[in-house]
Amino acid sequence: MTTPQNPSFTTQIVHADRRGGAEQGAIHQPVHTSVQYGYDKVEDLIAVFQGTAKGGFNYARQGTPTTAALESMVTQMENGRGTIAFATGMAGICAIFLTLLKAGDHLVASQFVFGNTNSVFGTLADLGIEVTLVDVTNAANVAAALRPTTRMVFVETIANPGTQIPDLQGIGAVCQEHGLLYVVDNTVASPYLFQAESVGAGLVLNSLTKSIGGQGAALGGAVTDTGRYDWSRYPNIFAAYRKGDPKGWGLQQLRKKGLRDMGATLSSQAAHQLALGAETLALRMDRTSATALALAQWLEQHPAVARVLYPMLPSHPQHAFAQKHLKAGSWLLSFELRDPGQCLAVCNRLQLPIKATGLADTRTLIIPVAHTIFWEAGPQVRAAMGIADGMIRLSVGLEETQDLLADFAQALQGA
Ligand SMILES: *Cc1c(COP(=O)(O)O)cnc(C)c1O
Asked: Which of 116, 193, 223, 365 to mutate to test the pocket of ligand 1 (most atoms within 8 A of CB)?
């Protein structure tokens, strides 16, 4: 399949390892489990430590040839400059916030974010980093929240579970005008459906656990530098990393402080598994998006359903943007029942979707949102995020559309 932004997405990805020169003619990048990396001459070891060697490994906490191959694959997908892999998506998010923000700084973030990211905002506040949450579907709200101490703006391309899409271009323009670092969590859309570099994002976060890995079998995260941010303007780069081309400063600090010091490193075994999943990203996104759209259209006309949240429905508030900028709508679909009291019964009557948290597995997963992933947040946060008591979230898998439609038809009978 092809995308307008990147004419040969899957072709590039399935040949990435070979072009990287895997040893012994291996077609897949091997799994490197060595923790230490040694050199014949001590000068070569010194060059790796001092960053003057091209590539080179010393201790696996900072990466291995296997994690590096995955990093370069994600860089290609996001049309970026470089990527750092982490043990999880949350590790990548925490590395961004904790290594690039300081006490006294101000962060403007979307009020529609992954629940655990929202929980991290509370930690940042305790550390003296102020966070303002805004409705990012209008860039004017971001502009209005800016202060002289604002350093960073953080949004998700398709928010979970409400599927809100920020004014991604408008916010990019605001960040550009004020020299702010624009961070986009692209986990749900994935670089196949949307490249955040196209709207001026400086850093892109992907939970590799979700779309890119796609099998529900390994955790991972990645932070990609798109090359769009001028790090020489960023005040929080340590002197040690203000060396060489300023384009590399951000990732240098993230790797040393966020990966080496904080230690949430992706294992080579998990990197290998995630790289295998990444090869089928486009195929899975096309398939699950088509099924999710069919399901969304079917649910929207069902009398028991009050509202369906899916970007490719004309009823979605950001439908026009989605149609123009997203290749498809993704596997994420939420809906609300007219009678919230039926929420648990409907979930229980469904035979195929598995009652589980998690996203982007090959199997369809279903979860009542207010009772589970947003239970700890409480009613006020839920109301602010537009999460109704009867909201059900679906992560659509690879099952045949007709099988899912038949299952929903029986489960919604009498609801
Ligand atoms: C799951 C998720 C994360 C966190 O990723 P993990 O790999 O589970 O740590 C971050 N952002 C979004 C949008 C997610 O869905």
From this structure: 116
